[in-house]
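Workshop exercise sheet. Pairs work together: one partner reads the sequence aloud, the other fills in the structure field after running the prediction. Swap roles for the next sheet.
Pair: D.N. / O.F.
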Amino acid sequence: MAAHSSLPSAVRNAVRRLRPILGDRLVTTSDPGYESTRRLWNAAVTTRPAVIARCLDADDVRTVVRTARDCGVPLSVRAGGHDWAGRALRPGGLALDLTGMNQVTVARDSATAIVAGGATAADLLAAAQPYGLVTATGVVRAVGMAGLTMAGGYGPLCGRYGLALDNLLGAELVLADGQQVTASPDDDAELYWALRGGGGNFGVVTSLRYRLHPLRTVLAGMILFPVEQARSVLASYRNFLPRCPDELTVMAGFLPGPQGQPVLFLAPSWSGRDLGAGERAVARLVAFGRPVTAQVGPMPYGDALGMFDGGMLPGNQYLLRTRWLADLSEPAVEVLLDAATEASSPYSALAVHHFHGAATRVGRTETAFGLRHDHLLVEVIAVWPPGEPVAAHRHWADRCSARLAPFALPGGYPNLLAPDEPERIRLAYGPNYPRLLAAKRRYDPDNVFGSAVPTLPRISGPRARTRSIG
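Structure field:
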C-alpha cells in the first residue's frame, strides 16, 4: 500500500476493497497506464480521478458502485467518454470505466439488439450490418450509444426513425444503492420514461435493448459550396426543409476549407426505398448554388457516419456551445456566417442538425426529452491544437451563442449544454422538468451520479429509498 499512501483515506479504503476483485483493472495515479486510461478524446479535459475501475460486466459495476458509496468516494461513469465537458471524470474521484463492455448481440427475428453499456455506434452498426439492420444513432461512429441515447441522439435517420432514444426498448442498470434493475414499459415504466432524455442521472446503464430497422444502404454524402454563396444556399435550404419527407434528413453547417476559408456544407441522408426519389431530392440540393464538389451516393449507413469522424480527432482541444432554432432565419444565417468567417481557429466548425418527421410524432410527455416540434439544433464547435490558450476560442463560441440567443428557442440540447447552465437545462425539459426531478429524487436521492449528463441540480427534500424492481 506504500504506492497509495498519498491517496485520501476514503480512496485507499476503496482501493483495498476493489484490488482483490479487479486486479490490474483497477488503475490508480501511480499505476502504469494511468495516463492512457484517463485520457478522453477532448484533450482540453485534464481532470485526474484518483482511481479508475475498468469494469467488464454488471457484477463489476455493482461492486464498484457499492464500494464508492460505502467509502464516500465521488463516482463518475465513463462509457463512450465523448461528453465535451469531461463529466466522465471527477477530480480525486472513482471513475467507473465501461469501455471494456462493448458487446452487441443482434436478434434478427425480432429485429432487436442488446448493446452493452460501453458500446459505441460503430460497435452496434458493425454487428447489425450483416443482417441489413440499423438503428438511429448520432453522426459520429465513436460516440457511445448509452450516453447519446439517454439524453437524445440527433442523427441522419431522425426523420424516418426518430431520435436514438425513441428506439430504446429497455435497459438494465445499476442504481445508486447497487441494485440491478430493469427499465422498460413493463418493468418500471417511470424509470424507462426518465432514461429517455434524462441522461445518466439515475444509475449506470449496463445494457440497452434497441429496435432495429431494415436498411442496407443510405444515399448520403457531402455537397460543398463556397462561403460566398452561403446566404443564398441557406435561404434555399430554409425553404426546402418544411417539404422534406421523413426519408430525407439534411444536416448543414460550415467546415474548415482551403487557404483558411470556410466552406458551407449540406449533408443529405436519404433512407427511403425509392433511390430515384432520393437522387432527385439531392439534385435539388445541388441546384441551390454552384458547389465546389458534390459527392453523394449509396453506401452502408455506418460508412455515412464516417464522414464526420475526422472532426473528432483525439488530441485536439474542444469547447462546444449549442442553441435550438425554430428555423434558419436571415438574422440567424448572418450570425452563423460571421462566426464561420471570424473563427478563432482553422479547425473550428458549425453544425446545424435537422429535427423533423418521426421524431416530431412522439408526444412531448411520452419521454423526458422536451422538444418535439420541427427545429434545428446548432452546434458551435471550437477546436484548437494543444498548447494554445483557451480564451480566444471560448470568446468565439460564447459570442456566437450569445448572438443566436435572441432567435433561439428556450433551453437547448441537454447532451451539449455546459454544467454551468442549469437554467437552460431546466428550460430544455419544459413541463417534463418537475417529473424528471421527482425521478432523480426517487432513484438517486444522494446525488451519487452528480456528474451525469445533463447536470441536474442536487435535490433537497425527503430522501426516497430506491426499491427492487422487476
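Discussion prompt: The first helix runs from residue 9 to 22. What would you look at next?
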